[in-house]
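Morning - pyridoxal-5'-phosphate inputs below, output right after.
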Amino acid sequence: MNADEFRKAAHAAVEEIIHYNETLPTVPVTAQIPPGYLSPHLPSTAPQHPQPWSTIQPDIATHIIPGLTHWQHPGFMSWFPATTSYPSLLGEMYSAAFTAPAFNWLCSPACTELETVVMDWVCRMLALPDVFLSGGEGGGVIQGSASEAIVTCMVAARERMVVKECKGLEGEEREKKVAEVKGRLVALGGDQVHSATPKGAMIAGTRYHAITTRREDGFRLTGKGLREALKEIEGKGLLPYYVTTTMGSTGICAVDVFEEIAEVKKEWPDVWIHVDAAYAGAALVCEEYQHHAKFFGEFDSFDMNMHKWLLVNFDASCLFVRKRQDLISAMSITPSYLLNPSHISGLVTDYRDWQIPLGRRFRALKIWFVLRSYGVSGLQKHIRHTVGLGELFAGLVRERSDLFRIVAGPAFALTVIQVLPKKGEKGNDGDEAWVQEVNRVTKEAYEAVNRGGEIFLTSGVVGGQLAIRVVSANANAEEKWVKKAFEILVKEAEKVVGTS
Ligand code: PLP
């Protein structure tokens, strides 16, 4: 493809993308195709001879779009959103054009330096404590996902603990001690943490302990719960080294009790505390949520995904650490081919030392474009609008307390509900038979809603019971779609429960 052909193809692609976005509300939100739909439509080998764009492009509409779940559809209320925006797409376009896998500053100084600038912007925008700014000992680095941020911090925490425990030892004696210490390490998290945390422990090669949270505490990790778990682990001769705390748990958007956890951190200063704010951290752009960040300066790291709620397309996970040296000590390895004068000078940042892979994409561009195109005020508007839609939805649910109950929220645009059986039919609230019936009607209504294809929801388990999660946070979320979602839920729930 030469430049003229690219110009024509790119214009056609842009037109198609705009058309896709504008017509989204008219199509089902989920793919209406069976598994394995694609390969019968495509040849079994790559073409031997070049094909023009005019042959390639039509396959997007014919074969690819029918197999998409439309995350930008206003009826997409599943999981958490993966928002995007036009400025973000422009960032991707330039990034792809420059294709600079900027592992070292020298690879493309602009990639590194823009990342440092925008991460400081994000840090200030979210009112995170100054310890996370690049000017001191901390700093921010863009990771691919919240899971990657967790495992990166876990590895850094592991190495920090190993170094402390093996201080003063050398040679074989040290090697033996390292193996012994590693065998005793335990990572922890509340039982509401995302599976990325136990998975991180699997990858880091350490034990994992889930701390039971209580319904009375709103399933939040408390200082007491954490302290007891740490003591219990130490009582067994094991060594706690890392804890995930959560701002906005995946199931119900619970926020751990950071003030109390900060007190525990004072008693166990060597245990790394990470704040996983993958989704709800975006709300920190609004002053009314910034009190949550008050104690984050006591912790070791914080991560939020701009690619969930903040209009930057996947991937853009913003990890901030209090001491960048913790990452560098664990991740830095410099063979001769990576050695260069700028690295040796110590005057530059080489982000390869702050992450697991070597190469990295130029993701700062899309963040920069979004921050400038929307301004902080534009992002605040988006967050407040979608939070408001969550409140609207919860209000509608409350008006039908005969048919539904809210089990959590509305919080950060998430409302978690259950369908209720007819009163008196299956025992009383709390009885085992009643719980079974709640699970049954909730499951059946939920499945019927998703089969309909107009809106798309996910379910979860809260306190051992099935519940439906409704998230009104996507970039195209609208009042009329929230009302429509409620109407569909009522229709299906009434059918299942038998009131219509
Ligand atoms: N942490 C929380 C609280 C989440 O809700 C999620 C995903 O929804 C993750 C971590 C994992 O995010 P990622 O897909 O960026 O790894």
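Note: Residues 104 and 339 are 10 Å apart (CA to CA).

O.
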